[in-house]
Amino acid sequence: MPVINFSRSDLENLMGAKVPTETLRERLPMMGADLKFAEEGNDELSFEFFPDRPDLYSVEGIARALKAFLDIDPGLRVYTVGDSQVRVLVDPSVNVVRPYIWSAIVEGLVFDDPLIRSMMDLQEKLHLTIGRDRKKVAIGIHDMEAVEPPFTYKSVLPDELTFFPLQGTREMTPAEILESHDKGRAYAFVLNGKERYPLIVDKNGEVLSMPPIINGIATEVTEKTEDIFVDCTGTDLNALKYSVNIITAALADRGGKVLSVVIERDGMELRAPDLEPRSMTLDVAHTNRWLGTALNAEEIAGCLGRLGFGASVNDGALDVKVPAYRADILHPVDLAEDVAIGHGYEAFGDFFPKETTFGVEDPLVSFASRVRPIMTGLGYFEVVTLSLSNSREQFTALGLDDSTEALRIQNPVTEMHTLVRISLLPSLLGILRKNKHRELPQRIFEIGDVVVNTANRKRLGGVAIHAKASFTECKSLLLSLSAALGLTSEIAAAEHPAYVPGRCATIMAATREVGIFGEVHPRTIESFELKYPIVAFEMDLDAVHSILERRIE
Q: Left if phi > 0, otherwise alpha if psi is -120 to 50, otherwise beta: which for 529?
């Protein structure tokens, strides 16, 4: 979780009020923070904030939230956005590189040391969290004095032009920056495989930024800076919008005046940023049912006010205004959680359980625990992967029909996670892909859940990659595993598009098919960007456990 370091004097200056150390130690954790350092008489404070509240990754956001939470200034903070007449032109050439940009202008700032320090920290925290280490979102802050709008967001060839990057010693081409600049080497992976690189330039061709790598030195922010241009580029427009909202709200809390930018894209004009609050409805009865409380509508509105929301009672329900910087509010239950925080966890009281119960380990989990040391003894390393996957890896890469029934996500966050996996094999091949630069052989296994016909199944999967990987090796492994488990099994020929024809078989036990194994098809190997022979297997542990239990009985 992100650790935010800030000074008490800066916090109190932003709040316009003194806050005792004990109050900070007691109340900030109630908002979703973990105390790191807060000592009486020391100006430095350090708290670790939960990742669902990126608006609290700066001292400005913390001050704003505390003013509401401590009833100093509860309710919705309203931000006005003026019109700057500045335009950002989006060239179609960026569509295949880094398609989206979102922006803002903030004027009238005093860039003293606390503000510069806060903005640098906030940028990096957003890069690591929302930005996924700059792959999804990258943010740039520029001094407006040295450049002239309109700005153009475009892509260029690696050696098409030169500019002087921040922390550089000379003018460099984009390719040279990726090869020899510290930031270029650190983030070159984001542009890996791209034939063109994104740039933001002004009317005269001056380079503001090469996102997501480095800004140009021409727009370096100093203590003399007063007006700034915020650029945010990436692959997820919603994430860009929230990132810009968080930064501009923080700068507005420093006394800056927020101005809009017109973004021209594909014949459309978009006005950025949008700091208007979103409207949601919260049902009083549902909220009380979720929380186990008996609060009336006015009391719930008061709780929401202490979390920075605007709330008004309307025919027994609540019309809630959600601040534009609250990226974590997706559903009314999220509002209910904030009602609980505003009400105060200490107000819920405590009680002892009415019944004493003792938990026992699920038999299938116990069985899986027996399997792990056997696989380790056979030379395999255990891995754990996500249960979410996508059609390309679960079906296309394995040569399967995409119409195969799978539990699909209605509103996926990314194109990589659109369904619940039906097989462990793509997850394991994905691990090999990430480690293809490491020496061979590699042998890994996973015990994890898949969903088949809307039912969870516990499976064991394994893969081995090396120059001499063969069907015989995998068969020997599974016979050894079966013997160690006391499972009487047989091998029967089978066909599966993910495996080489004639090099695939099923594992049979008690007349049931409990697994499949074989040499992975070259088409599947290439789909995962691998180059060496691979053998793989997948075994249904639910079925194996059921067979063994019946035999014991």
A: left
Kindly state whether residues 234 and 92 are assigned to the same domain.
yes
Token pair 């929401």 is found at 304
Residues 6+ apart with CB under 8 A from 54: 125, 126, 129, 130, 242, 243, 246, 327, 328
**Does one domain contain both 394 and 478?**
yes
CA angle 364, 370, 371 (to 5 degrees): 90
How far, in Å, CA of 215 to CA of 167, rounded?
A: 9
388 plus 497 within the same structural domain:
yes
- pTM confidence score: 0.69
- Class of residue 103 by CB neighbours under 10 A (exposed 0-12, middle 13-18, buried 19+): buried
Contacts of 458 (CB under 8 A, 6+ apart): 364, 368, 447, 448, 449, 540, 541, 542, 545
Residue 49 lies in domain: 3-69
> For the chain, how far is it from start to end, CA to CA, in angstroms?
49
Beta bridge partners of 321: 279, 310
Residues 6+ positions from 433 with CB-CB distance below 8 Å: 528, 529, 530
Query: What is the rounded CA–CA span in Å between residue 164 and residue 171?
Result: 4
Inter-helix orientation angle 59-69/237-253, to 10°: 70
Cβ distance 410 to 398 under 8 Å? no
Which helix (H) or strand (E) is 220 found in, with range?
none
Domain count, the chain: 4
Whether 98 and 62 share a structural domain: no
The 3-state secondary structure of 443-464 reads EEEEEEEEEECCEEEEEEEEEE
- For 106-136, what is each residue's pLDDT tens digit? 999 998 888 988 999 999 999 988 998 999 9
- 290 vs 409, higher pLDDT: 290
Residues 162-198: pLDDT tens digits?
A: 999 998 889 999 999 999 999 999 999 999 889 999 9
What is the spatial distance between Cα 124 and Cα 183, in angstroms, rounded to a whole number?
Answer: 13
Both 132 and 266 in one domain: the answer is: yes
Residue 1: strand, helix, or coil:
coil
DSSP, residue by residue, 148-201: -SPEEEEEE-TTS--B-BTT-SS-B-HHHHHHHSHHHHHHGGGGTT-SSEEEEE
Sequence-ordered list of residues with C-beta below 8 angstroms from that of 258, at least 6 positions apart, any chain? 79, 80, 81, 82, 104, 105, 106, 248, 251, 252, 273, 275
In sequence order, the β-bridge partners of residue 89 are: 152, 264
Taking residues 275-298, report their average pLDDT.
94
